[in-house]
Design a protein that fits this description.
Keywords: Methyltransferase, Restriction system, S-adenosyl-L-methionine, Transferase. InterPro entries: D12N6_MeTrfase_N, DNA_Adenine_Mtase, DNA_methylase_A-5, DNA_methylase_N6_adenine_CS, SAM-dependent_MTases_sf. Its EC number is 2.1.1.72. The chain is built from 26 helices and 17 strands. The chain is α/β, with parallel strands linked by helices. The strands form 4 sheets. The chain has a 9-stranded mixed beta sheet with strand order 3-2-1-4-5-7-6-8-11, with helices on both faces. Strands 12, 15, 16 and 17 form a 4-stranded antiparallel beta sheet that branches. Strand 2, helix 13 and strand 3 form a beta-alpha-beta unit.
Length: about 650
């Protein structure tokens, strides 16, 4: 029995077949999606409206003297439609003759209500129609789409959403773009949603429950729709309102259409650059989901972002990452959109925001720690996204954690929870099954240490890099080189040479006492500058000597021996050094005043499990075997 995803994939393949049949040699392969997507949306909208269309046309004609927005309201109230079309044409009618197909098609599209007009603008639909008409392919394309059964009785909303996602993936795949940058695989979204809602299941019950969901990088609206469906599964009576913002034309048009099809508001997705202008500036939300571009350059938005960052307490005032990677800007934005009465966010990132040591990312992480906003971070399996196989993570933010989770951050390693895909899509070769996702939710709810979970504090991720030195051990030795090193000084003369010879073998630490006494006895002067110079000139490393101190009693550091020890803020410095440093360098010294502070989330290191090395005898046996094989090979060569 075919699954929903299987049916969606099959349907998408049928839709996409248009490309090979009618677009070949007219449109470049990388542009197929620009044509397939708008015609798919048009056919779906047409199928959804066909049952009521005659009545709607008569109804609208009766209100022809009213402004368009009032007509929209009237139609919505009477027919429960958030959009409509008053053209007497449809695709089948247009395809029934091959004359003036372009004019008929544009007239038909112009018949849609004004609240969806920008969909066709975003798709640049008139330009596409003109190109197909000029190539004499428009009639064939219209005829093909007029036969596709995309009505609600044939294709459920959720399946249609999957078809849109599939077609969009094929479109971006043809363009060679990183498809993962434009939309997120459904299994990843479902995991984000499962974890996001698991903490709120009790509060989601009831008949009058209201929730808002927001995605600042909405793409085709997949995250919003999956989250909406998940909430309605938990509570069929819940009222969910979704909000999105998307920059790219095609994704915006598709997302708006998909949300409309599934009963959303016409303005549920707004078009614009989230980093430059937050189109929901005065709103916060119960849930925020986002998959911003991995390593996305924000040079275009730099001027605006830096200007916004000047306002204390604003979304970008907590630090700015490098221009080559804007992920943490979106992380800050999502945190700023959480409802002050309690909001949760799930944000996808690559590994960089976990440990990037630049000043901006450090500052942003510190702000997240200080505000106790990080609830959990989940490592996803690699090869989960269509456009990249790299390691990815989901940040769960929460500005109103339950009491038991406050001051804590949970790390969940789900990198091993996956199933191989029967047919890879781009770089996506793995998927998380329902059982895999359930295991993650179980670990999240258990909130305890296990093989895949660690519960830590922000202080565990905050550190100071402390400089560690070793104290030198020096002996005093006379040499001609030492004398030569001192001859350039005005306070040094030949009369002091014999005194240096007498100091040979004297404990180096005692030179500050014995040199002045010997000089005075000889009627000479030994100012402190000369004492220091003599100590330096006669110093010779000697591991049998006591630890060296200078004239003032300060430890003398060994040349060429300096390390930096990273110490978590959750640990006592002296205890850490006693455990980690002094057993290997008993004379090590450190200077906490010169420590540099920072933070990182070393996810991989925390879950690293050292492997037991193989027995030495086993390694020796392998070496002997290989040596024997090499000897036989050399023997064979020499005999040829």
């Amino acid at each position: 029995m075919a699954t929903e995803s299987g049916r969606a994939s099959a349907a998408a393949r049928i839709v996409w077949d248009t490309a090979d049949k009618f677009l070949r040699n007219v449109v470049e392969p990388q542009e197929y999606g620009d044509y397939i997507l708008p015609f798919t949306v048009l056919r779906r909208l047409e199928c959804l409206l066909e049952d009521t269309k005659p009545e709607v046309i008569k109804y609208v004609e009766a209100f022809s003297n009213l402004p368009p927005h009032l007509i929209d309201i009237a139609v919505r109230d009477k027919f429960k439609l958030s959009f409509y079309n008053v053209s007497p044409l449809d695709l089948a009618t247009i395809a029934s003759v091959d004359d003036n197909v372009d004019k008929s098609l544009l007239s038909y599209v112009a018949g849609f209500s004004q609240n969806v007009a920008d969909i066709w603008t975003a798709f640049d639909f008139p330009k596409l129609v003109a190109k197909l008409a000029a190539a004499n392919r428009l009639h064939a394309v219209v005829k093909h789409f007029s036969t596709l059964p995309l009505g609600s009785t044939n294709v459920e909303d959720a399946v249609m959403g999957d078809i849109f996602e599939d077609v969009m993936y094929r479109a971006f795949d043809k363009k060679g773009k990183a498809a993962g940058a434009f939309y997120t695989p459904r299994d990843a979204i479902k995991l984000m949603v499962d974890v996001l809602f698991s903490a709120d299941e009790d509060s989601l019950a009831g008949e009058n429950t209201l929730r808002s969901i927001y995605d600042p990088t909405a793409g085709s609206g997949g995250m919003l729709l999956v989250a909406q469906d998940a909430l309605k599964e938990l509570n069929p009576d819940i009222k969910v309102t979704v909000y999105g913002q998307e920059l790219m034309d095609a994704a915006y048009a598709l997302g708006k259409a998909d949300l409309l099809i599934q009963g959303g508001r016409p303005d549920a997705i707004r078009q614009g650059d989230t980093l430059i202008t937050d189109l929901y500036d005065d709103q916060t939300f119960d849930y925020v989901l986002s998959n911003p571009p991995f390593g996305g350059d924000w040079e275009v938005e730099e001027k605006s972002v830096r200007e916004q960052a000047k306002t204390p307490g604003s979304r970008f005032s907590h630090g700015l990452p490098s221009k080559s990677d804007g992920q943490m800007l979106f992380l800050c934005h999502c945190a700023s959109k959480l409802s002050p009465t309690g909001g949760r966010a799930a944000v996808v990132s690559n590994a960089s925001p976990l440990f990037n040591s630049d000043a901006g990312p450090n500052s942003i992480r510190q702000w997240l720690f200080d505000q106790d906003l990080i609830d959990a971070i989940i490592a996803l399996p690699t090869q989960m996204f269509y456009g990249t196989g790299i390691a990815t993570y989901v940040w769960i933010l929460d500005n109103n954690k339950p009491a038991e989770r406050r001051g804590k951050i949970q790390l969940i390693d789900a990198s091993g929870l996956w199933e191989p895909m029967r047919k890879p899509l781009g770089d996506k070769r793995r998927e998380m099954s329902a059982a895999n996702r359930a295991a993650v939710v179980e670990a999240y709810e258990a909130f305890t240490d296990s093989d895949v979970s660690r519960v830590l504090t922000p202080q565990d991720f905050m550190f100071r890099d402390v400089p560690v030195f070793k104290q030198a051990r020096l002996a005093a030795r006379y040499s001609e080189e030492a004398v030569d090193a001192l001859r350039g000084r005005r306070d040094f003369g030949d009369a002091l040479v014999q005194i240096l010879k007498d100091l040979d073998g004297t404990p180096w630490n005692l030179i500050p006492k014995r040199l002045p006494v010997a000089a005075k006895a000889a009627g000479l002067k030994a100012p402190v500058g000369l004492v220091d110079a003599v100590m330096q000139a006669m110093a010779v490393p000697d591991e049998t000597a006591p630890p060296a101190v200078d004239r003032k009693g300060n430890p003398v550091l060994a040349d060429g021996w300096k390390i930096t020890e990273r110490v978590p803020m959750s640990e006592d410095l002296d205890e850490h050094m006693a455990r980690e440093v002094l057993p290997f360098a008993p004379e090590a010294r450190w200077d906490e005043s010169k420590a540099k502070h920072g933070n990182e989330i070393p996810f991989t290191r925390i879950f690293y499990v050292p492997e037991e090395p193989r027995p030495l005898a086993e390694i020796d046996a392998d070496v002997q075997r290989i040596m024997g094989e090499l000897a036989e090979m050399f023997q064979g060569v020499s005999e040829e």
